[in-house]
């Protein structure tokens, strides 16, 4: 019969009883756990930031009132929370001990016998030396042999080959050339030990040069550009100088020898090989035993030294503990940047030029008037815009001065009031002249490898009239006199309505982010009926159809751009929010680079956790249907002005948080869209970029003002430029107002809101008209245009890391904020449920809270990934602080769902980073009995795994991802011990018996699911491995006798009659547990007093375990 199991020793009591033996033992360092086993690094490392300053505004934490905003700010500004196990490197197998040197992997060996030579050309050669150092490599054009002059073209004479200049083991040089850059097979070789000179050969080409040999042979080569030509010639001259030096040394050595040995038969044979015409034979003749032996010793490894690096375990080795200092920064969630390229505007020039000089005797030909250019990327295949607009000012200083500066800054000066709080976002100390320099460049990024990417450029001009009338002279005339006449006319328009723009032309080009492109783009006239995004996509899809392009009207001129792919960080670069990025010298030297915001798809595989503060809103007015209104007689040249306001009181000024265009302030109060002449149903193509305040409230809203702009009065009517306000009765006439609250019911408005009605007046308190129907608020009288029909279409695009577009996630944080008032930090004497009445029925508030938590199952995975640290922190806080058992259990169920969904899209690395760097257990003040994360998490996981409550899908997900929850438990326990200083207490007093009981119940609840599902081998093995690792870490933190009892209880579940699968799980469990870094102290190898008389008695001493 099977003998009864031996009860494990009570480790802590045994250590106390044998305290004298332990301290007097000569090897006591091996018998006692070190006191610094687990620590929190004193200088907590900071999270790595791409910006040189904090991305969050200075007073953001004070302004934040909603829970989601507060928690997001904490996530982006807090330091890393790391637990260090000082001796963790000694756990595991001896093969991963820290004193083992890690060798580089063996280089791949290629032998001649393994090379297939059947398909080689006649002039192909094999490199018999396996070790050659490459001095230079690149593309060259190889000329014909013997320099035969003929009438064949350059492309027929010269062949493009990939050349490699190598130094061989005998210190001679060889020039090999290949057909492709992969260097799969050589097309030939040139031995350079006889090279005598390298000279230019301009007769054959601009970048040609000749490599001359001592035997009067020569090779004609050609580079692709001047820089490559210089580099190759310098490399060949260095080779020739090295050959001359070695030749002189050889001559000196031969002069010292007084007697020359008689050549042997083998020497004669070798001499004959040197005179051979075959290059391989010549190469073979120069090899000696010494050179071959030396070549064999180079990069040679000891085969047995590679053994420690062999991977022998299924789950791999544990990570080594890193040492951090106060200056360290950790890239917690590294974001993979897309394919990036640099865009620079080189030139914008029209065929029609004007003499803009005030002196008629001086010729200064430039474009007749100011133009404004914006670039954006479109995905023609997906049919959408994928980046924001990048604005460039192509005008010279003289042309730019045609628009008075006071006209561009009139709105900002009008809305500047003394004593009113400054609403301008924090801006780094930029010089506006440098910021809006003509040479500034854009850094575009494309993620996901989309195809059919087009760079679309819009060209606009100052409002003058109809598009056909304004473009007619540019299309039909090239006379400078005509251009000068237009220049004089536009001076008047610029001085009157220079702040209003109209469409002029467009152009587009298919681009590849990986290729350098220097191109001139053809300009096409813009049609007033094709300004919408749908029309732009349609034109881009027709770019490859010549029959469609022939119908587009070309404006003579060109737009010259330069596209360069980039990989390394760019200096003098700022984010889309205008925050400087590393490296950013002070003061900045060179041109400004601006990262352009990319509108990525909400796909899980492209998503990454948010790591910095960003709160941008893009506003797109689409169209205004004013063709049927009868309220205003003049409503044809319609200008749309957009403002962001935080109040609807009379005299409230707009916030200065709209990103300005070149020529304006960096942040302005008003943005205006292009004006279409004599159009009562205008379509807009404007993109307004707004830096939203950190905390939004119900009064924040977008205000749209509409004006009729009179082009005729701007020609004749004088205007006082020094006036502080615009003369609306002469040039600009108000024809309507519309507003869009940013928050509705506390939630951010949808990105595709319903069309808006237009009001003819704007009384104070106009925002309250939505609440009139409920009878709660008295609304001022508002006169509506066209019977309050919805006339204005607007789209929004939110790019924020503190606000969410997901309704379920928003509801969850709203209910969590309500629960904050019910949280009590102390644990009551009885386990009660405060949100449940005595009759067991759930209250309405509790039901709403439960529904909000359960609704997280409907959140998109990409949203989970974006807000992962914030969501997980809130769920752990909810589990530990709530007194409602249903809320805690459903929060644990949601945790399992989130971890599973994130892992299913191959994002396990961000889960690991969260556990290691982000998770922080809740504080436990001294003198109070507070529920902790590890206690409540262990309790609720046990409830979910019990057969009564077990949901098979939840259980399967937990088993597969149990490692995450076990590591959270361990880290919470370690942080709790260190912060409360209970780490200094005896182990059997560190944690309560109730918590030990919960751990025991959790482990007992796991095993039945492993035993009942042997078909799911992977999940069972994963859970068994995670459990073993968890128990191994418990040895470091808790009562070791309790851990031994857990192991004994777990082992009782296995029997000799188990299948092979369970036997393997059993021994895998034991192997991991026994790999503890303090395995020797756990075995208690003590010499018992009174039992040892001689060394023979050592064999009779049994291990107490």
Automatic annotation (TrEMBL):
Region listing for Disordered, in residue ranges: 247-273
GO annotation (BP), single: small GTPase-mediated signal transduction
Domain annotation PH: ranges: 133-241
Domain C2 DOCK-type intervals: 614-799
Domain of life, source organism: Eukaryota
GO MF annotation list: guanyl-nucleotide exchange factor activity
SUPFAM superfamilies from the UniProt entry: PH domain-like
One Pfam family matching this protein: DOCK-C2
Family the UniProt entry places it in: Belongs to the DOCK family.
Entry protein name: PH domain-containing protein
Organism of this sequence: Octopus bimaculoides
Lineage of the organism: Eukaryota, Metazoa, Spiralia, Lophotrochozoa, Mollusca
């Amino acid at each position: 019969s099977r003998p009864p199991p031996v009860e494990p020793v009570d480790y802590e009591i045994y250590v106390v009883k044998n305290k004298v033996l332990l301290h007097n033992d000569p090897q006591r360092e091996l018998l006692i756990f070190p006191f610094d086993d687990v620590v929190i690094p004193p200088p907590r490392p900071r999270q790595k930031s791409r910006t040189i300053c904090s991305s969050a505004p200075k007073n953001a934490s004070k302004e934040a009132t909603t829970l989601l905003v507060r928690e997001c700010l904490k996530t982006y500004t807090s330091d890393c929370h790391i637990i260090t196990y000082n001796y963790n490197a000694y756990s595991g197998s001896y093969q991963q001990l820290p004193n083992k040197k890690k060798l580089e992997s063996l280089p791949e060996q290629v032998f001649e016998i393994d090379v297939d030579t059947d398909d080689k050309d006649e002039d192909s050669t094999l490199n018999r030396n396996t070790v050659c150092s490459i001095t230079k490599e690149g593309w060259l054009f190889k000329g014909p042999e013997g320099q035969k002059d003929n009438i064949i073209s350059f492309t027929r004479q010269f062949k493009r080959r990939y050349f490699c200049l190598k130094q061989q083991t005998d210190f001679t040089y060889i020039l090999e050339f290949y057909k492709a850059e992969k260097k799969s097979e050589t097309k030939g070789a040139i031995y350079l030990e006889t090279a005598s000179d390298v000279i230019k050969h301009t007769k054959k080409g601009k970048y040609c040069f000749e490599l001359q040999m001592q035997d009067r042979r020569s090779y004609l080569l050609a580079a692709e550009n001047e820089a490559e030509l210089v580099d190759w010639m310098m490399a060949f001259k260095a080779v020739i100088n090295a050959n001359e030096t070695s030749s002189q040394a050889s001559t000196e050595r031969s002069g010292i020898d007084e007697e020359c040995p008689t050549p042997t038969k083998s020497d004669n044979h070798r001499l004959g090989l040197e005179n051979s015409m075959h290059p391989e034979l010549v190469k073979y003749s120069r090899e000696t035993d010494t050179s071959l032996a030396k070549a064999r010793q180079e990069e040679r490894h000891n085969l047995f030294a590679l053994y420690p690096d062999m991977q022998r375990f299924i789950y791999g080795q544990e990570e080594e503990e890193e040492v951090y200092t106060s200056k360290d920064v950790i890239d917690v969630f590294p974001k993979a940047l897309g394919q990036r390229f640099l865009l620079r505007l080189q030139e914008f020039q029209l065929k029609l030029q004007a003499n803009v000089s005030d002196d008629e005797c001086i010729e200064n030909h430039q474009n007749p008037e100011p133009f404004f250019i914006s670039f954006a990327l479109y995905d023609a295949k997906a049919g959408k815009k994928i980046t924001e607009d990048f604005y460039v000012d192509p005008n010279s200083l003289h042309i730019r001065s045609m628009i008075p500066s006071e006209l561009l800054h009139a709105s900002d000066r009008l809305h500047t009031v003394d004593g009113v709080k400054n609403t301008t976002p924090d801006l780094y100390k930029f010089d506006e002249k440098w910021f809006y320099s003509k040479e500034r460049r854009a850094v575009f990024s494309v993620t996901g490898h989309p195809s059919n990417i087009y760079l679309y450029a819009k060209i606009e001009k100052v409002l003058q009239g109809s598009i056909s009338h304004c473009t007619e002279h540019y299309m039909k005339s090239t006379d400078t006199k005509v251009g000068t006449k237009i220049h004089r006319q536009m001076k008047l328009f610029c001085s009157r309505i220079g702040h209003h723009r109209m469409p002029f032309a467009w152009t587009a080009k298919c681009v590849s982010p990986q290729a350098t492109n220097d191109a001139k783009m053809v300009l096409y006239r813009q049609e007033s009926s094709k300004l919408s995004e749908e029309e732009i996509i349609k034109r881009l899809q027709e770019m490859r159809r010549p029959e469609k392009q022939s119908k587009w009207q070309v404006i003579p001129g060109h737009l010259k751009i330069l596209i360069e792919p980039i990989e390394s960080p760019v200096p003098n670069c700022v984010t889309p929010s205008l925050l400087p990025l590393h490296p950013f010298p002070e003061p900045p030297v060179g041109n400004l680079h601006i990262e352009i915001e990319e509108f990525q798809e909400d796909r899980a595989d492209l998503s990454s956790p948010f790591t910095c503060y960003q709160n941008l809103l893009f506003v797109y007015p689409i169209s205004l249907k004013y063709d049927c209104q009868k309220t205003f007689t003049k409503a044809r040249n319609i200008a749309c002005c957009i403002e962001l306001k935080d109040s609807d009181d009379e005299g409230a000024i707009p916030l200065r948080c709209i990103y300005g265009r070149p020529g304006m302030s960096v942040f302005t109060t008003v943005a205006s869209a292009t004006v279409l002449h004599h159009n009562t149903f205008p379509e807009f193509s404007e993109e307004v970029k707004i830096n939203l305040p950190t905390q939004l409230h119900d009064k924040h809203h977008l205000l749209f003002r509409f004006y009729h702009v009179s082009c005729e009065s701007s020609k004749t009517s004088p205007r006082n430029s020094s006036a502080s306000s615009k003369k609306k009765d002469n040039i600009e006439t108000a024809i309507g107002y519309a507003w869009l609250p940013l928050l509705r019911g506390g939630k951010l408005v949808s990105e595709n809101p319903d069309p808006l009605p237009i009001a003819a007046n704007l009384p104070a308190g106009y925002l309250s008209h939505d609440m009139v129907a409920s009878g709660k608020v008295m609304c001022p009288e508002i006169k509506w245009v066209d019977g309050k029909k919805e006339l204005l279409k607007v789209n929004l695009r939110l790019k924020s890391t503190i606000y969410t577009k997901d309704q379920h996630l928003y509801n969850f944080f709203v209910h969590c904020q309500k629960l904050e008032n019910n949280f009590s930090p102390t644990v009551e004497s009885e386990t009660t449920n405060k949100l449940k009445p005595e009759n067991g029925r759930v209250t309405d508030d509790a039901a709403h809270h439960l529904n909000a938590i359960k609704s997280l199952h409907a959140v998109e995975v990409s949203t989970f990934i974006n807000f992962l640290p914030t969501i997980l922190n809130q769920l752990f806080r909810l589990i530990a602080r709530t007194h409602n058992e249903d809320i805690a259990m459903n929060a644990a169920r949601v945790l399992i769902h989130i971890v599973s969904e994130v892992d299913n899209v191959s994002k396990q690395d961000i889960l690991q980073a969260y556990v290691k760097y982000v998770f922080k257990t809740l504080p436990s003040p001294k003198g109070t009995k507070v529920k902790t994360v590890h206690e409540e998490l262990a309790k609720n996981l046990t409830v979910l795994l019990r057969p009564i409550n077990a949901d098979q899908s939840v259980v399967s997900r937990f088993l597969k991802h149990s490692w995450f929850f076990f590591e959270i438990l361990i880290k919470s326990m370690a942080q709790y011990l260190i912060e409360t200083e209970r780490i200094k207490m005896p182990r059997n007093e560190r944690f309560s018996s109730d918590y030990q009981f919960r751990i025991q119940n959790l482990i007992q609840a796991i095993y039945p699911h492993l035993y009942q599902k042997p078909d799911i081998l992977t999940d069972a093995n994963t859970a068994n491995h995670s459990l073993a690792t968890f128990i191994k870490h418990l040895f470091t933190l808790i009562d070791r006798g309790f851990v031994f009892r857990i192991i004994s209880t777990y082992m009782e579940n296995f029997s000799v009659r188990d299948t092979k699968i369970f036997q393997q799980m059993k021994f895998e469990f034991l192997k991991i547990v026994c790999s503890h870094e303090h395995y020797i102290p756990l075995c208690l190898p003590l010499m018992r007093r009174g039992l040892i008389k001689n060394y023979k008695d050592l064999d009779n001493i049994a291990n107490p375990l």
